[in-house]
Amino acid sequence: MNLNLPSRACPVCGGARALPRWEKGELRLVTCRDCGMVFANPAPAGMASGAFYDAAGNDYYLSPAKLESDYAAVRFQRELRLFREFCPRGAVLDVGCSSGAFLFQLNKRWPGDYRIRGTDVSGPPLDYAESRGVPVTRGDFLNLDFALPIGVPASGPARGCASAAVAGPEAGAPFDAVTFWAVLEHLDQPALFLAKAAEVLKPDGLCFVLVPNLRSLAFHLLGLRYRYVYPQHLNYFTAQTLAGLCAPHFQIVALRYSHFNPVIIWQDWRRGGREVPNAERAQLLKSTTALKQKPWLAPAKWCYALAEKTLGAMGLADNLVFVLRRK
Fold first, then answer.
1. Which pLDDT band, with edges at 50, 70 and 90, does 129 fall under?
2. What is the pLDDT of residue 324?
3. Which domains does the chain have, with CATH numbers?
4. Which of 65, 116, 220, 308 is the S-S candidate for 103 at Cβ 3.0 to 4.6 Å?
5. pTM score, whole prediction
6. 307 contacts 235 by C-beta, under 8 angstroms
7. Burial of 194 (0-12, 13-18, 19+ CB in 10 A)
8. Which residue did the predictor score with more confidence, 301 or 225?
C-alpha cells in the first residue's frame, strides 16, 4: 500500500473516525464509525483524479466486446424502463456517459422525446459517443458550465420530468433529469457531484442513481472474492448510506433493486478473489448480452427474472437504484 496517498474523510458524513473493514491488494476499505459508510481510504493512485479512466480504462470501455454489448438493444433495458416511467420527455444529462450507449438507446427508442447530452473525463469514449450521434461535453463535471440552455425541440417547448410547469430551460438549470449509472462508486467526492447535479436541474428535476449494493447476495456470499471489490470502486453503498449522501439536495422518489448475475458469483467463488482482467470482464458482458437475445432461452429468462425479482424484494439484488427529486 502507498502510505503517501492522502487520507479520505467519509464521503457521506465527512467523519474522520473509521474502522478497518477489508484489505485486497492495494485496496484498503474502512467503515465510518459515525454513519456506517464503507469506503476506500486512501483512494488508490489514479482513481480519485480520474487519470485511470482517461488512460488504461479506455482499453476496456472501447474494446469491441464492451461496445457491442453496450450498444445491444437489451443492454440498458432496466434503466430505460425505469427512466421512462418517471421521465417521459425532457432534457437529459448523463454524467459518466462513457461511450454514450444509454443516451443512444434512449434516443433510438423514443426519438424526439428527449434532448440528450453526455459528459465524461475520458476523451476516446466520448469520441465514439459523438460518432454515434450523441452530443457530449468534455471535462470534469464539477467544473463545467451548463448555464446556457441546450436547445428546444422543433415542436416547441415541452414540459419534461419536473412537476413544475416551466416554459423552457432556465439559465443555470437546463436539465429535466441527470443520470449517474454506475458512477458514484468511482468518485472520490460523490457529494460534490450530487450538489452539482442539483444545480443544473430544473425545479423538481429528477436524478437517477445506480450503484452496486453492498448488501447484495453476491457480497454476502463472496466478500473479498467479489470482482467488484477492486481499486476502481472507492465507495460501497447500502440504501441507508446512499440516502444519507443524497439527503442534502434530494428527496427519494423511488428505491429499486436490480440485476443479478449468478455466473459472476460462480466464477468469483472458483477464482478465489483473483483479479479479473478487463478483457474477461468485457467478454462475459458480451456473452450474457448475447444470451438475453436468444428466443429459445425464454423459459430460462423467465426463471431468471423471477429470481431477480425475488432478490430485489429482499434487498439482495446486485444493484440499488434511487430516483431522486431536487429539493
1. very high
2. 98
3. 49-152+167-217+237-326 (3.40.50.150)
4. 116
5. 0.89
6. no
7. buried
8. 225
